[in-house]
Design brief:
Helix content of chain A is 41%, strand content 14%. By secondary structure, chain A is α+β, with helices and mostly antiparallel strands.
Amino acid sequence: MTKINQNIHRFGEEERHGVYRAIYERRDMRSYFTPTPIEDDVLGRLLDAAHHAPSVGMMQPWRFILIRDAGVRQSVYELFKQANEAASSIYEDKQKALYVSLKLAGILEAPVNLCVTCDITSGRGRGLGRQTMPETAIYSTVCAIQNLCLAARAEGIGVGWVSIFDPDRLRSLLGIPAEMVFVGYLCMGYASQFDAQSELQLQGWEMPSELPNLIHFDRYGNTDEKRAAQLLGTLKF
Amino acid sequence: MTKINQNIHRFGEEERHGVYRAIYERRDMRSYFTPTPIEDDVLGRLLDAAHHAPSVGMMQPWRFILIRDAGVRQSVYELFKQANEAASSIYEDKQKALYVSLKLAGILEAPVNLCVTCDITSGRGRGLGRQTMPETAIYSTVCAIQNLCLAARAEGIGVGWVSIFDPDRLRSLLGIPAEMVFVGYLCMGYASQFDAQSELQLQGWEMPSELPNLIHFDRYGNTDEKRAAQLLGTLKF
């Protein structure tokens, strides 16, 4: 098969660059939300991007709670604040000082919040692919979130994923039925800034890891730094 | 804030179109793998795209097993075949006939397989965001898979996610340690075709669901078809 045949379905340079740019320039947003409302058509595009995620057996188990009401966001923020105070207690000294200085959510500043849930009871897809790995229903819902995050980046919109809640209290606040899985809580808004690095890196909480160390060949444990470096050594986009 | 300010960080039209195109034209690939090898530099880009997924506390818990060995793929295929035969037994009559006619994995045809695992024991990120929702480590790994699937689409490469395995037998076959979570098994290769719709839809297994029904406003259960239709009625990319 010739080079040309290989690339029939490859995107052109600009479109391909757009995909990688979204992946590389996406940030978990906490600090830079502006109050500018997200227009209906843009928000619709983001939700539809999420709705086009892969899903096991075409189950499409995602259910969205779109939260713009300031009172609801205030109540959610209180839950975050309590959970965050509790979370800080496992750290000590300098690490604790750093933790409490971190801004970890933009619930009130972001004009749109989105709670993403998963209906694991749905019969859609007739169980295909779920008999051996039922957790794939939830994984499909996570893929929907990642689609939304990347489409948002292309629109200049920042998304921050907040996981510092008592999930049961959040479920109760938002009226999420017992049979639904609460997957993620997102803060969304036009961003004044996208940093070149993640906020946690810039604030000295954690540094990026090296990809070659994370690649095993044919079997777990069979790492090969030289082979991995060769794979990754020529990265060009 | 003016329209111009809102859009400082918005991508240009072509790049933005590339992101949506990857999202809409990605397919879960089973039938159309070509034997053309994936070049190292392309494979490196896909793995690096995965490595740039969001992760809780910057944990980056994904670990990749890159499988090109034909013997290993053959053994994985046997596990799939056994699990798939067992899975077919819950269906009856026409549904069973349809199920057994479906091609659900391209393990042997795809030149590259990738098993994605998650190290939930990693101390990276110092537990930030994981005290209340430890499952977010696995969700980060799923985001890495979705990044890879979208970058692959931009390269003309199809990815198929296989979940029809006995997970314990697959772990044992690939030597995955007990403390690691097996998240997903992917088949990857240049595709001869990307259908306009999903294979499961074309084969009549399941039809796409309507997005407006999946949107709740401010609280679960508060659906509003008219409001949702307004959000989504003007979709333009």
